[in-house]
Amino acid sequence: MDTTQSKISLKKSWQLHQRGMKLWYQREPKLIIYLFLESLLIVAMPYVLIYFSAKILNELGNQRRVEELVKWIVWTLVVESVLGILKEVVRYQKMKYQGMSSLLNSEFYVDKMLTMDYQKFATSHIHDLRTQIKESENWTGVGLLRVLKITEEIFQSILGILGGVLLTFSLFTSVVTTTSDELIWLNHPLLVAILFILSILGTMLPPFFMNKSGEYWIRLASESRDGNRFGMFFSYYMNQSDRGLDVRMYEQDKITEQYILEHNVYQDRNSLFAQYSRGGIGIFRSLAAISSVIFSGFVYLYVCLKAWGGAFGVGSVTQYIGAILSLANHVSKFVEAIGSTQTNAEFLQVNFELLDQPNELYQGTLTTEKRSDRNYSIEFCNVSFKYPDSDTFVLKNISLKFEIGKRIAIVGENGSGKTTFIKLLCRLYDPTEGEIRLNGIDIRKYNYTDYLNLFSVVFQDFKLLSLTIGENVAANREYEEEKVKLALDESGFSERLDHSPEGLKSYLYKDFNPAGIEISGGEAQKIAIARALYKDAPFMILDEPTASLDPIAEEEIYQKFNQIVSDKTAVYISHRLSSCRFCDEILVFDKGEIIQRGHHNELVNQSKEKYSELWTAQAQYYQ
Ligand code: ADP
Fold first, then answer.
1. Residue extents of the structural domains in the chain
2. What pairs with residue 395 in β-bridges?
């Protein structure tokens, strides 16, 4: 966050908070309702007590009628008890919903990230926004979470001000009796006006100074961002079991500690935090405390003088002092809350920038027909593409049509654009130029989820969940066991499954279950292939499907490849050209272009071309 930019106006801050409150209300209305009810009771109880105590003390100080005293005592007990019980009931309900607020808060972002266009999701800008939000939340809980607290503070302070005004009003209207001549000036209307202005000043100054000191905290938040980022990243990194070996082997803790300390703003007496504490933070906080004490002294003096002059009884002294101090406290809180809206608005802007990202990929409405004949034809028409953060075309002028039910292999050197081509096919990105058509219609016109459902993909960097094997394959808690077993059998995992203690119900890894099983990269790849088979989509895409498999397992997969793919259209990227021999067509990628295409036998004989070059290079190792 750039602290040099001008502060967000109060109006804009308030609008952002209103939007935040609305968002919370839409997600969980009960949270806001209970927040309001609790605020009402929290504020009402002390005022009710002040009011009744004044009645009792006035009676004691004046006529001392027993029945009046008993009446007020009973009223105090009954009303306070009822309010107290109500407050606890409401508090319990509020806590129940507030306990979920962190979870609900993450849901705002998880929902957004999941529905966001992948091409946007993968940009550094979005990554940076998400990181900033997380860091700010971890640092002091600012952002959308803070909206809840500010809402609560604003509710309470407004109610508190109303209550305070109600109980103090008669202080200004009650007059000093004419018998006490030396204090008669207290009745002068000008004095009442001056007092009123002084009271406003007295209540406004402490929060004003507190907000000034708060500005230094914000500066600190922005200046400690790098330190937080290093801290967060490395504390996460150190706890990951698969990083454990590297950490120990290369003593990575030492270098990380240096980075964290170098960027730490709290470390010693010369740190930024210490400087701010000696400067702005400390000075403004002291001024806030001093102005608050002076104001209290002044209230005591004025109320006591009026009581001395006979304007009211001793009971009312407690009422006015209690009510004014409470009123001042609520005014302070109100001003502070308004100040924090301005501070928090800077963070909220970032929150909303992320939440407001339009989801362009989701604009299509056509449904893809469910065809039992899997008659889906996809065609690339002059497609060129560059990644959103980059200026270079990584795919250039690609035109091709996928024949239904055919097996297509894609080969080419690293970085030639193979994976990018698959990403476009699955519409993780839209082409920069040209279009991709499904049954003759631009794929952008189709419902995105429907379109994605046409593909079963095993990406190179697939990820499995630390859940059971069955749940991983089915991507669902409910699944058909037989179908899952069949998929695992086809991908070559069945032998390992037989050795897993609880079969399909065995957990992978130990994140959620200490008895979870650790599997090798090859075994994980088999599960990922089974997951794609279970989905049973008309297009089967495998990106380096056998990269982590040993030669025997790889051979097994290829033996079964026709059976696995059955009537689906299959596209697979492979580095091992020997596995492409069985394909109907091979596409050779080079620097983002398809430079050769055809069957293995044709291509291998074009001796001066890329395919034959790659083939010859690999053949040496197989001989
Ligand atoms: P291959 O699968 O053939 O190894 P890729 O399709 O992964 O090649 O990459 C093609 C080119 O695109 C490479 O130069 C790579 O650096 C670049 N590239 C890949 N992913 C991104 C990305 N997210 N942003 C920018 N450039 C990328």
1. 10-28+123-355, 462-536
2. 385
CB of 416 sitting under 6 A from ligand 1? yes
Can you list the positions of beta strands (E) in 510-559? Answer: 539-543
Query: Among 145, 293, 141, 149, which residue's Cα sits nearest to residue 209?
Result: 293
Q: Is the CB of 136 under 6 A from ligand 1?
A: no
* Statement: residue 622 has pLDDT above 60: no
Ligand 1: residue whose CA is nearest its atom 14: 415
Ligand 1 centroid – CA 554 distance (Å)? 26
How many Å lie between the centroid of ligand 1 and the Cα of residue 395? Answer: 10
Tell whether ligand 1 has an atom less than 6 A from the beta carbon of residue 390.
Answer: yes
Residue 405 Cα to ligand 1 middle (Å) = 28
Per residue in 373-413, pLDDT (tens digit) is 667 889 999 999 999 888 999 999 999 998 888 889 999 99
Decide whether any atom of ligand 1 lies within 6 Å of the 419 Cβ.
yes
Q: How does pLDDT run across 574-618, given as a tens digit for each residue?
A: 877 877 877 889 999 999 999 999 998 899 888 888 888 888 887
* CATH 3.40.50.300 correct for 462-536: yes
- Which residue minimizes the CA distance to atom 1 of ligand 1? 415
30: pLDDT confidence band, cut at 50, 70 and 90? Answer: very high
* CB of 121 sitting under 6 A from ligand 1: no
Q: Which of the residue ranges 193-207, 415-429, 458-472 would you say has the lowest mean pLDDT?
A: 193-207
Tell me the pLDDT tens digit for each residue of 451-493.
988 999 888 888 899 999 999 999 999 999 999 999 999 888 9
Gap between the Cα atoms of 553 and 415, Å rounded? 26
Token duo for residue 232: 């967060």
List of residues 6+ apart from 9 with CB closer than 8 A: none
Query: Of all atoms in ligand 1, which is nearest to the CA of residue 414?
Result: 4
Kindly state the helix (H) or strand (E) to which residue 383 belongs, with its residue range: strand 378-385
DSSP 343-372: HHHHHHHHHHHHHT---GGGG--BPPP--T
pTM for this entry:
0.71
Atom of ligand 1 at shortest distance to CA of 122? 23
